[in-house]
Amino acid sequence: MRRSRLGRSGLHLSPLTLGTAGWGDQVDDDEARRITEAYLSAGGASFSAAHAYGGGEAEQMLGRLLDDVVSRDEVVITTKAGVGRTAGGRVVDTSRGGLLGQLDTSLSRLRTDHVDLWMVHTWSDDVPLEETLSALEHAVASGKARYVGVSNYLGWQLARAATLLQTVRVPLVADEVELSLLQREAQHDTVPAAEHLGVGLLAWSPLGRGALTGKYRHTVPADSRAARRPEAMAPYLDDTSRAVVEAVSTAAEGLGVTAAEVALAWVLAQPTVASALIGPRTATQLAPLLRATGLQIPAQVREALDEVSDV
């Protein structure tokens, strides 16, 4: 699994980054170890976490694996700040104090003195952007983060943030956005902005929240995300989405691969995408995802997928 350059920065990521959003909730320590060992054996070296994942347990689990399963210096660790969980639900705090406080907590959980890439988890109108970005500047200056970026920023938000950071000579190198054959909104403004600015994209939910694997073609498994959160999955299971899923499945059958491989390969072929985030719950689920890095979708098939998903 050869690493890809993140935008115009000097940071290189594995084409598939192992996400930990389900760790501590759907993935326990033993399974996390099996998944990590399989991922590393395939040549993967990029891990994605966030202060909010698993109520903090995801970062702690990853921290316990570092230097036990693999040396810290051999992997790229990404984490995000700005979102937290309380008894009342999701809380967004992109203030300088809130972000830096979460960074210190993340470093403690991860058992490291720095992360390779630190990102603001989401945009917020409640805090001036200049204040939010001052936390990124401080993180780089203090050595707690080697590179900085943002997550879920629209094109104009990304451009504004990158321009402001340029004035203090701190490059903004990444934007983590949702991108898949079922969610192509980022292509309208974020992808062109990132390409112009030299910012690399990390694609989250490249499998359309699991729908593009074909698991929902005939039924909704009882242990699936659609069963747990039907309202969140509804846009990915409507008639339009079903047509895309059928097209992906047909392409996969013709190519002799899985639907997940086709969906991931399509994302990895998009301009400015340096890595796609995957979140398998078991080592068995990981295996077919890893094969996507070697799949080249024929131009005719890619054009057909572009057409059926262009809504």
TrEMBL record:
<dbReference type="InterPro" id="IPR023210">
    <property type="entry name" value="NADP_OxRdtase_dom"/>
</dbReference>
<feature type="domain" description="NADP-dependent oxidoreductase">
    <location>
        <begin position="15"/>
        <end position="309"/>
    </location>
</feature>
<dbReference type="InterPro" id="IPR050523">
    <property type="entry name" value="AKR_Detox_Biosynth"/>
</dbReference>
<dbReference type="InterPro" id="IPR020471">
    <property type="entry name" value="AKR"/>
</dbReference>
<dbReference type="InterPro" id="IPR036812">
    <property type="entry name" value="NAD(P)_OxRdtase_dom_sf"/>
</dbReference>
<dbReference type="GO" id="GO:0016491">
    <property type="term" value="F:oxidoreductase activity"/>
</dbReference>
<dbReference type="InterPro" id="IPR018170">
    <property type="entry name" value="Aldo/ket_reductase_CS"/>
</dbReference>
<dbReference type="Pfam" id="PF00248">
    <property type="entry name" value="Aldo_ket_red"/>
</dbReference>
<protein>
    <submittedName>
        <fullName>Aryl-alcohol dehydrogenase-like predicted oxidoreductase</fullName>
    </submittedName>
</protein>
<dbReference type="GO" id="GO:0005829">
    <property type="term" value="C:cytosol"/>
</dbReference>
